[in-house]
Structure formats: structure tokens, C-alpha cells
Write a structure and sequence with these properties.
174 residues; 6 helices; 0% strand
């Protein structure tokens, strides 16, 4: 918020909205790239298996409607559920992208943060896989865990390439 006054006695308050906006835009863009990458990956897998939109339909029904895997008919795809799940998935990726963009802006100010951010990413990915193995084992059997792991790595790679291009001078120092 910037307040300007023509009086010489009133203080002028300024902030850096362009820097904050840049971080938000980077985070949302990276999140959209990551979500789109993983969505395209699973769409290609679903099409190659002869069941387009199976993955978002399955995940939407299981995670959002709390239906059992057995009750979900693989032949009937609810495009409403596909859209709802895709929207929620995109929002989650935008939030993750926003956090990553903020952390990268901090790492640009202090190079020692870079290694911690990289380590946090590895722990986050490992934690996601372990949590999926522990709590979503039936979903992993339906979708195969290697497909999920490859999809996450592709999405993380797409986001990393985007951030790398936006921050070419960023140095990671232990």
C-alpha cells in the first residue's frame, strides 16, 4: 500500500508490492506447470490403458467422496468429479509452488538457505511416497506406485526448470 501526500509534514509509506506480486505469480505459474505436467502424464497413461480420465475420476471419488475402490466402476467416468479433482489438485500445486517461490526468494537473499530448501524438497518427496504407501495402499495398487513416483518427479522437474530459469543466479551453498 502506498500513501502519498502533497504536504511536507505527512510521512510517505511505501512497500514493494511488485516483489510480493512477482513471488505470487512465480508460485502460481510453477504450480500450474507442475499440476499440468502430472495431469498430462496420467492422461497419457490412462489413454494408453484404454480408459481416459480414469486416474482423476478414481482419485476424486476416493479422496473427495470417500468411496471405496470396489464401488467405483472403471467404465463410468464422472466428468464432474474429474473437474473437481483437477481443480483441487491444481490449487494444492499452486500452494506448493507459492511456498517454493517464497523459499527461493529467501534463498536469493541468503545463500545458506538454498541447501536447506533442497533438503526439504527431498524430504517432502520421500514423505509423500511413504505416506502414500502407508495410507493409500489400495490406490497405489490401482494406479501403480511407479507411475505416481514418475508423475511426481516429472512435475517437480517441470517446476524446477521453471524456477531455475527465473532464478539463474541462485547459488546453493551448504
Amino acid at each position: 500500500m502506498a500513501v502519498q501526500s502533497h504536504s511536507t509534514n505527512a510521512p510517505t509509506v511505501t512497500s514493494r508490492p511488485s516483489e510480493v506480486s512477482r513471488v505470487y505469480v512465480e508460485g502460481i505459474t510453477a504450480g500450474i506447470l507442475g499440476a499440468a505436467t502430472i495431469a498430462i502424464w496420467f492422461f497419457l497413461l490412462d489413454v494408453s490403458n484404454g480408459r481416459p480420465f480414469y486416474t482423476p475420476n478414481l482419485l476424486g471419488n476416493v479422496l473427495l467422496r470417500r468411496e471405496s475402490l470396489e464401488s467405483i466402476d472403471a467404465a463410468s467416468i464422472s466428468f464432474e468429479m474429474v473437474l473437481i479433482y483437477t481443480w483441487v489438485h491444481g490449487l494444492v500445486f499452486c500452494a506448493v509452488g507459492g511456498i517454493a517461490a517464497k523459499l527461493l526468494s529467501l534463498a536469493e537473499q541468503n545463500t545458506n538457505y538454498g541447501f536447506g530448501i533442497l533438503l526439504s524438497f527431498v524430504i517432502f518427496e520421500f514423505g509423500f511416497v511413504v505416506a502414500a504407501l502407508l495410507f493409500a495402499e489400495p490406490i497405489l495398487q490401482a494406479l501403480t506406485w511407479p507411475a505416481i513416483l514418475v508423475g511426481n518427479l516429472l512435475a517437480a522437474g517441470a517446476m524446477a526448470v521453471y524456477f531455475w530459469r527465473r532464478h539463474p543466479k541462485l547459488v546453493v551453498a551448504p
